[in-house]
Amino acid sequence: MAASPSGVAPAPDPLIRRAAGAPAARVPRRGRLLALDGLRLVAALMVCAYHYTGRGGVVSASWHASPDRLFPSLYRVAVYGNLGVQFFFVISGFVICMSSWGRTLGDFFRSRVARLYPAYWVALALVTAASFALPVVVRPVRLDEFLVNLTMLQQPMGATRVLGVCWTLWVELRFYVLFALFVVVRGVTYRRVVLFACVWTPAAVLCHSSGNELLRQVVMPEYAPFFVGGLALYLIHRFGSDLLTWGIVVMSWLLAQSEATRGLWGPHPHRDPYVVILVVTAAYAAVAAVALGWTRWASWSWLVTAGALTYPFYLVHEHLGWFVIRVLHRGLGLAPWPTLAVTVAGMLALAWLIHRFVEKPFGPRLKRALKKAGTPGTAALS
Question: Positive or negative CA dihedral for 127, 3, 95, 99?
Answer without folding.
Answer: negative
